[in-house]
Specification:
The strands form two sheets. The protein has a five-stranded mixed β-sheet. A two-stranded antiparallel sheet has the order 1-2. 40% of the residues lie in helices and 18% in strands. It is globular, with a radius of gyration of 27 Å. Mean pLDDT is 84; it is low at 1-39. It has helices at 3-27, 59-62, 77-93, 110-120, 131-135, 168-180; strands spanning 48-50, 56-58, 66-72, 97-103, 126-128, 148-152, 158-163. By secondary structure, it is α/β, with parallel strands linked by helices. Strand 6 (148-152) and strand 7 form a beta hairpin. The protein is built from six helices and seven strands. It has a single domain, classed as Glutaredoxin.
Length: 187
């Protein structure tokens, strides 16, 4: 065996290996996907919160229109920003959509919740969370952080939930999905 032929053999083997690997990758079938199961129909969320104006923000008064429910605190800047975005969205989509903010603070903060609504110029109701909502056993389940946005379809079924700030465009996308009867992945 000559020096030239001994050097060519490893390079030839490497080339054959690369070409073989390329054929295996190119001819491989895509990974099998599990068939999509139809999404089970969610139960409508039944809720009732007292507003800062002494009225009710509840499922009975919102049924029939898509509803955006924003969970906030009065002292959180992200909550204030989300409340303003929601205000813009609902101004553009009233009367075909509802909105309301639920302040996750104790009843003694009713005055702060009212000031939150007034100072931000909100056109939708601001309510205080009830004890079951504060404890995480309410109809919306555990609210782990603020702001949290829950979008309900016309029947009161949840179609989108996002913890953390979302853009106005994302709010609009969730509202359009609810109007079209589509469910979006939660964030």
């Amino acid at each position: 065996m000559t020096v030239a032929s001994s050097c060519a053999l490893p390079k030839l083997c490497q080339l054959f290996g690369v070409v073989s690997l390329g054929w295996v990758v190119a001819c491989a079938s895509p990974p099998a996907r599990a068939p999509e199961e139809p999404r089970a129909q969610a139960q409508p969320i039944e809720f009732s919160f007292g507003t800062t104006e002494g009225e009710l923000f509840d499922s009975a008064s919102t049924r029939g229109r898509c509803t955006l429910v924003l969970f906030v605190t009065t002292f959180d800047l992200a909550s204030q920003a989300q409340a303003r975005y929601l205000n813009e969205v609902i101004r553009e989509h009233r009367p075909r959509a509802n909105a309301g903010a639920v302040v996750l603070e104790p009843p003694k903060h009713r005055i702060l919740a009212g000031a939150f609504r007034t100072s931000l110029g909100l056109v939708y109701p601001v309510a205080l969370a009830n004890p079951s909502t504060l404890s995480g056993s309410g109809p919306f389940g555990r609210i782990a952080g603020v702001p949290t946005l829950v979008v309900l379809d016309r029947d009161g079924q949840p179609v989108f939930r996002s913890q953390g700030a979302v853009s106005k465009a994302q709010m609009l996308e969730a509202l359009r999905a609810a109007e079209a009867g589509r469910v979006l992945p939660n964030r």
